[in-house]
Amino acid sequence: MTTNPRNRIVVFRLSHDEYQQLKEACERAGARSVSDFTRNEVLGYLRSRAPAGGVNHRVATLEQQVEVMQFQLNHLLEGQSHAGMGQP
Predict the structure, then answer these.
(1) What is the pLDDT of residues 16-39, one digit of tens each?
(2) Cα 18 from Cα 74, distance rounded (Å)
């Protein structure tokens, strides 16, 4: 994760179908929000374009993988929490 404040906003429009696809991808990844998922995917794409073999590229790749695992773990834990309360 970055220590720099997130103080920039990016806005783009999607069709209804595009948004549904984005929400489904977000849910499959276990992301906590569409914004987090989209940010991670876009930044991951940009990081993958970095010169191969560099330390910064490898660290960025590891950071992205850790964030994905955190999203998935949170999703699993939320599912267990709901199951423990008798909810689906």
Answers:
(1) 999 999 999 999 888 889 999 999
(2) 25
